[in-house]
Amino acid sequence: MSKLKIDLLRHGESQFSHTLRGHLDDDLTPKGWQQMQSTIEQHKNQTWDVIVSSSLKRCACFAEQLAKTTELPLLLNHDLKEMFFGDWEGVSTQQIYETSPELLANFWEKPSQYCPPGAETLMQFQIRVLKGFQDLLENMQKQNWQHALVVTHGGVIKLLACLAGQQPLDDLLKMPAELGKLYSLEFSEVDGQLTFMLR
């Protein structure tokens, strides 16, 4: 398999950006839209073959608009949604710190072993996200697409950055993934194993 390029665009600021949103479906703020727009303008010499987006509005609305203006195909992918935070959905870390400081500290330090009450585990999240990318890569090969833009979430970008850098998954929450910023990966498949590196 040839190397395939994927650019990951994190959504911009959304209405509940001060909380753990997970699967909550909040809209982008005007500032969030602007953050994404200016990043795309900085990369306007990029030639993407397809735009792929998480199905949540804070990614999908911008992706739909961009697909229209660039006349590129758009694929929505449920597997590329943010991690599901269970009982912590829509709650700020400050509030969690006040009620469950130990649980928050454990999750922050060792997300591979601890997860919020009722949430998806890091392992489940990883399996889901990698399935989403596996499907995308198969699609890219079928269609002969070389370069995709994926509009997604901080958790997804941090997970891929950890895997690409072969860092322990417990570093996940410490990885950078700024709102509205673009991160580039190169994917290849070796003996059925997905490998990718940050470009």
UniProtKB/TrEMBL annotation:
- Tell me which Pfam families the record gives: His_Phos_1
Which InterPro entries does UniProt cross-reference here?
His_Pase_superF_clade-1, His_PPase_superfam, PGM_Phosphatase
Name the domain of life: Bacteria
User: What is the recorded name of this protein?
Assistant: Histidine phosphatase family protein
